[in-house]
Amino acid sequence: MMDMIIAPFTKYGLVMAFLIIGVVMYISSWISKLTNKRIAGSAIAIIIGLILAYIGGVASGKGSGGISNIPLFSGIGVMGGSMLRDYCIISTAFGARISEIKKAGAAGIISLFIGVISAYIVGVVIAVMFGYSDAASATTIGAGAVTFIVGPVTGAAVGASSEVVALSIAAGVVKSILVMIVTPFVAKPVGLNNPKSAMVYGGLMGTTSGTAAGLAATDPRLVPYGAMTATFYTGLGCLLCPSVLFLITKAILG
Amino acid sequence: MVVYGLLLLSGCMYAGVLIGDILGKITGVNSNVGGVGIAMLFLILLSDYLLERDLLSSKAQAGIQFWSMMYIPVVVAMSARQNVVSAVTGGPMAILAGVVAVAVAFTFIPMLSKIGAPGEPLPELEKKEA
After folding, report:
1. Which residue in B96, B40, B85, B107 sits closest to A100, CA to CA?
2. Do residue B29 and residue B48 come from a single domain?
3. Is B101 within the bounds of a domain?
């Protein structure tokens, strides 16, 4: 009996994911109404998603993949995977205004460099404070503070230990999840209400998943602008961290 | 036809990701460099061109708009498959590095937004259901 109930969920994974996410969205907008819409429904939905990811990770004993590790929810792995995520991000550009992008061009590019370098410095300083003071380890953890993709790519390039690579991934994941949760709450004080500051934000934060979710919960109209710069961030990080930034770090730490 | 919208969208994605991979190869980076961003630029330029000449039927547009309206649900599904366990159990160093990196980045937003012409806030909208 139980098998029969679960079977459609595994057989028609993606379609059943629409069902599950639809229910999550419905519950979220209902909770949002309880707060007088002070907290956006999408912000609540993302937090519910993260809680599900935690539960799924603990229940399956395997953190990566979150709730999609459980067969009942396997379709969420497809729906929330990079293929559909990137497809949807690109589609948001339909209707974005080229004039707005030109206006933010210079600020966007500068924010990319400042974003990567500042996150890297923060990561390196904290790594050294915690005793990871050799150049390879400090660089890898610094790269992890850039994004959880730059961390392992850099770690492999500079020959860091697997323990350090795991820490760098964890730092990147913390950053990404924090950006998802915090963005709608700090949007107002930092002036995140126009396409230009959204492009700067994308360049500074860089984590594609973090900015994608953060802007969705703040103002969906800003998504294309933030996402556009953010997608250059990981590439720039992979370029700078194992090369220039590693050499500078090595020169300083000896 | 609605699928023409998807043709345009998928074509832009293919071209962008391909260029991103080539850029990654050229720069010796083990990753895609800006593929999605390049695809977005293609979509903006092409749809601008096609709309101006009235070559994109409203059904084709609806095909693209469907996916952009699916954006938030897809992002919710994405959040449900994050490695939250690793973030929570990563230990104080990983958490501190992540938190400070985000805090520093946010403080830079107002400063960098001042570069160039000022941005116009988007008009207040009654929040639409996605």
Report:
1. B40
2. yes
3. yes
Instruction: Say how many domains are in chain B.
Output: 2
Interface contact B101-A122, CB threshold 8 A: yes
Query: Are B88 and B76 members of one domain?
Result: no
Task: Write down the ipTM of this complex.
Answer: 0.86
- Between positions 35 and 54 of B, the ones with CB within 8 A of A are 35-37, 39-41, 43-45, 47-48
Residues B12 and B56 in one domain: yes
> What is the gyration radius of the CA atoms in chain A, in angstroms?
20
- Could you state, in chain order, the average pLDDT of each consecutive group of 10 residues for chain A (254 residues)? 84 92 94 81 85 90 84 90 88 78 80 91 91 88 88 82 81 87 87 86 88 87 86 80 84 82
If asked whether residues B25 and B67 sit together in one domain, one would say yes
User: DSSP labels for A88-138?
Assistant: HHHHTTTT--HHHHHHTHHHHHHHHHHHHHHHHHHHHHHHHHTT--SHHHH
Domain range for B100 is: 83-114
